[in-house]
Amino acid sequence: MDIENIQNDYLARVEAAADIESLDAIRVDAIGKKGEISLLLKTLGKMTPEERNVQGPIINGARTMIADVIAARKEALETAALNARLASERLDMSLPAPQRHSGSVHPVSQVMDELTEIFADLGFAVAQGPEVEDDWRNFTALNIPETHPARAMHDTFYFPDKDAQEREMLLRTHTSPVQIRTMMDVAKRTDGKGEPIRIIAPGRTYRSDSDATHTPMFHQVEGLVIDKAIHMGHLKWTLETFVRAFFERDDIELRLRPSYFPFTEPSAEVDVGFSVEKGKRIIGGDRQGKEGGENGGWMEILGSGMVNPKVIENCGLDPNEWQGFAFGCGIDRLAMLKYGMDDLRAFFDGDLRWARHYGFDAHDVPTLSGGLSGKGAAA
Ligand code: DAH
Question: Which protein residue has the closest C-alpha to ligand 1 atom 3?
Fold first, then answer.
């Protein structure tokens, strides 16, 4: 075969090579140790000088050309392979990043933060007391004597043993003992003279009770205002301002209903007006107070009243000089009403799906509830 045909044959095969492996096989066939061109080069030695002068440049030229074409084709194939990989492995930076869960704020903590902020704006400080309380502060000082039926009504968790001072100990059944602690602190600090008080006390409370709207541990917020000329008008304005700020509507009405608590006189249960929109209860709106509850109505949200003079006296302050109002409200229920949960037990099951669904982004809320935990007794 004539050298030019051989060369053209290889050039065509190189051109047609689809990958590096077949290209390498062509290289071996042509210019490998025993390749066709290599063998032709070896024939040069046996030629006459004249023949060699003619054939030498032709065969060497063919070898160089084939080697060059293989190198070029190799580079092209490698570039194509790299491009194919880059295309198939490309990262799409426009895709949404996978969701990262950094934990969420529990609705109870969120609501505690919200109400603390609202009352802080009204000039209230936050007071705290222990969850393990003595029965004098939880009951007796609040004008609930030992024989009083209210003690039985509270389904109290008692400790089996008395403490070192022979006091009966219990898990507080309400946040009202923080009233007692706060007034006693003031009486002590002022030598019985007294001074104005404006506090709220959010915290955990305990009763032996469990159904869709009751859990053995729940949360309340207590409010206490003591001054020289406080009356029920102040109570109503304060609660109205709070409820409107909390539910973020100006058209919420309150109804004070005469009631009885041993620690207040007079006492009032406070109802909030609701409307029904698309089958759901909405706090506020124009159907408030409608009887029956199908279109709207009243629902009870808290207990309140003017602090019983006996309670003020029990704390070492002069009830002829100091008077005020108090209220106590379930925080979990506020959270349910505002954020739409219907089973209280799920609040404390620790199910992460619930926490993710109802929880709040930790970056969106102030840290008041975080700062509240773990501190000691009343402020
Ligand atoms: N301590 C009451 C309870 O747990 C709630 C309450 C009612 C608190 C009236 C008050 C009040 O301070 O004035 O049921």
Answer: 174
Is omega for the bond preceding 266 within 30 degrees of 0, making it cis? Answer: yes
Whether 142 and 311 have beta carbons less than 8 Å apart is answered as yes
- List, for residues 302-321, the tens digit of each pLDDT value: 999 999 999 999 999 999 99
**Residue having the nearest C-alpha atom to atom 5 of ligand 1:** 328
Which of 304, 308, 325 for a ligand 1 pocket mutation test, highest count of atoms within 8 Å of Cβ? 304
DSSP code of residue 175 = S
Instruction: Select from 329, 311, 317, 313 the least CA-distant residue to 235.
Output: 329
| Domain 107-350 class, CATH top level | alpha beta
Q: What is the pLDDT of residues 162-188, one digit of tens each?
A: 999 999 999 999 999 999 999 999 999
Q: Which of 263, 270, 301, 308 has the most ligand 1 atoms within 8 A of CB, as the residue to mutate? A: 263
pTM score, whole prediction: 0.72
Domains of the chain: which residue ranges?
3-83, 107-350
